[in-house]
Amino acid sequence: MGGISEVSAAVHTREFDVVLSFNRFNLLDWSAEEELLPQAQSHDVGVTVGGIFYQGFLSLPLELALQRVEEGIFWVWDWTEKQRDRVLPRLEKLRELVDNDLVALRRLAVRFALSNSGISVAVIGMKTVAEVTENLRAAEGGGLDAEMIERLKIL
Asked: Which CATH number is correct for 4-153, 3.90.870.40, 2.40.37.10, 3.65.10.10, 3.20.20.100?
């Protein structure tokens, strides 16, 4: 799987109009923001992001998300000990921010993905009409304001 450095290298070839970053621009992992997004913008390359719910960690009860890891449903290449140690404390702070309201957390995740002008498309997995409706309502709120982004950065 291509990480940020591999996708950034693809941008530099000027052979692509758009690239995909998976699990690297969401409330738990902002790593695409540092290298990939500025490079893509400077080369006029679109960026599609997938994994804005970080494979369920931002949309499901924590126990269920961890169970999915154990069952191999989560992309195991992405669940290293280092990544786990970064993600879980941040997830706890995010859940505290929204008073453990998963609907509010999902809305925050959608709006966060819409907040960066370097993102061309955010792919959001949905299984039900209710999820489509919920995500559309979140998107109607637009991106987060600068104050909220700064608040999220210090979590």
From this structure: 3.20.20.100
User: Residue 73: which pLDDT band, with cuts at 50, 70 and 90?
Assistant: confident
Long-range contacts of 112-116 (CB under 8 A, 24+ apart): 112/26, 112/27, 112/52, 112/143, 112/144, 112/149, 112/152, 113/25, 113/26, 113/49, 113/52, 114/139, 114/142, 114/143, 114/144, 115/143, 115/144, 115/149, 116/25, 116/33, 116/37, 116/143
Residue with tokens 């997004």: 37
pTM higher than 0.85: yes
